[in-house]
Amino acid sequence: MKVVQPYLDRIGYSGPTAPTLETLRAIHHAHLLSVPFENLDIAFGRKIVVDEDAFMRKVVEQRRGGFCYELNGAFAALLRALGFHVTLLSARVARDAGGWGPEFDHLTLRVDLDAPWLADVGFGELFLEPLRLEVESEQVDPAGTFRLMQSGDRLQLEKAETDGNWKRQYSFAFQSRHLEEFAGMCHYHQTSPDSSFAQTRICTRATPEGRITLADMRLSVTKNGRREERLLTSTQQREDELRELFGITL
Known about the structure:
This protein is of the alpha+beta class. It has a single domain, classed as 2-Layer Sandwich (Arylamine N-acetyltransferase fold), CATH 3.30.2140. Helix content is about 30%, strand content about 30%. The chain is built from seven helices and 13 strands. A hairpin with a 3-residue loop joins strand 3 (about 105-110) and strand 4.
């Protein structure tokens, strides 16, 4: 794949590329520091089509981000080109009011090395490095502590909260999926008034010290555990922040 080196340049990665756990961890982390999770095209009515080449062009050539189908779709292509064995998995996202979203609500990745790993660069604020696909094992990540719990025939990803409770993130089974199977939910998230992606413009990226997020006109910066917020006052100011903080020009 000719786009491998430009993709690695895009995420600022210049280390080893052999298909090892060390490479996977480093590339995964670099991706999350460089490529934002964002849904900005939806507000402009720019249709997002489930197409691997389109994902690669957007992330690498246009230096944009995307949401799960785009980011994990592109990342899976990069990993395969480097020699990794990658499986697309369908996940159902936990709802704040309880219950779960539908199948294909989220695209996540299984990467098989000597053992299976969960990789995900398309969920927004989540783990920065891949998690071992081990049940009931607490795993400490730079972004927090996570665990996978068995729930019927599915695994449930949870993140530890500061009060000692665990917050559900999403659940998934190991059934291998094809990219085109996510097309229906990709369309839904762009067009349904019930989809959060059609309600709020979001752009968020991990940083070495925390995270920066622009949600509509609210800019949030978390640094070393301290969070600051401010409201932007104009469209021009919002465009300036997108360009300066995320490298995005719409």
